[in-house]
Amino acid sequence: MNYRGKVAVVTGASSGIGYQAALALAERGCTVVGVARRQAELEELTSRCRRHASDSTFMVGDLGERAFAEHVVNDSARRFGRLDILVNNAGIPIHKHIYDVTPDDVERVMRVNFMSSVWTTLAAIPHMLLLGEAWIVNVSSFAAQVAPPRETAYTASKAAMDGFTEGLWTDLAGSGIHAGLVIPGPIDTEIWDKDDSPSAYSGNLHPPSIVVDAILECIENKLREVVAPRYSPQLLAARWMRFLTPSLMLKGMSWMEPVPEEVVSRARAAARRKRDGEGGGMG
Q1: Is residue 201 annotated as a catalytic residue, yes or no?
Q2: Are residues 256 and 227 part of one domain?
Q3: pLDDT in tens, 246-276
Q4: This prediction's pTM
Q5: 33, CA 20 to 30 Å: which among 16, 61, 173, 275?
Q6: Is residue 59 situated within a structural domain?
């Protein structure tokens, strides 16, 4: 795989997986457009990328807005005359009891975690068709395979990304555009610090570099799906339990992060107040 002369858009590039993926592509000679909401972090990333690919740049904005997501792709293709690689990595967490989740919460998570990848992908395909060979890599989450407690909305957003990517495998056949899906397990990024409430997960956190390696594998070997870490006993056991003994898996999840009785009682009381016209939501 010769990355030199190629152009890549990487979303969620201000930290963690996206930051390291953008840098890895630049180190291989690829011109990188890093995309995220935080300008200072993107400026630092771009400075490092330019040591290897001098035309690398960045775009600051909210990928949860369709106009910006499409602009990122179209402007990058116009500026450089091509778009070879699209890495959809942008994502936000939400860790709340379902009683406290609002429709606005779900819509926001879906727009950033799923719809942004739809908007960028659909904008990228016409540009990629002109090249004869191109790559789209969508970074999902193992939460889409086995839903953790209090992450219903997050799980739904990543499961939608999984289904969308699987559809691309057949829809893009014969186009020269390869779609890959990377499924990270628990990765040591700042996303854990952004949860609405602390996560009960206390196991190992893997370095972002293993996800970057999986992204590069999808590109270089045209793999359709890679779990990172690929041979984690923890992830393998969880996946098999999900299909073979789902009741046992649910017991394990409940043990890890049980729903306190007072949470249900509070939600039930709120439901009664709403029914009786006293106002207030479910939270």
Answers
A1: no
A2: no
A3: 787 777 777 777 888 898 899 999 999 988 9
A4: 0.87
A5: 173
A6: yes
